[in-house]
Input
Amino acid sequence: MMDIRVHTERLEIAPLVLDEIEALLAEDGVRLRELTGVLFPRPAAPPPYMTDPLPAVRERLRIRPAEAPWWNWLMFERETKRAVGSVSFGGPADESGGVLIGYAIYEQFEGHGYATEGVKAMIGWAFQQTGVKQVSTLAPVWNTPALRVAENAGMRPVASNEDDDVGEVLVYAVSAPASVGSA
Output
């Protein structure tokens, strides 16, 4: 893992680098433990909804390894070192200062507030980065837990879109506090 860490009351959150993503895609729990020091559920696999984008992230990191903090972050319990899920950005900030954030939690850790805790922490991290002015997320209207996480993390609905696979999707966003000065 990179030396960058974000800490919350219960979680440590660290960006996944190329070797760790490769081990995760290979479902190699032993290698993941060696690389991260974290215990993954068995069988070792990416959290739900993260399997599909990870190969593209892996290719991106092969070209630009320094961008690791702008992709997938591993969330794990501080005390037990058990992996609880992932918070992910959709890459570095765009020209308007916007970044996209998403998350996925392993099933056995759902409903314990880890997603909200992790997303709040990573929104705070993002606003400390140069040029980040807004963090947004997408959530299908039928995914009540995702909507609740966005709201509990301080985001508000700003738009809706139609997605061919999941139907109506709400766009939630939060702007950088004026005191942050991320210009």
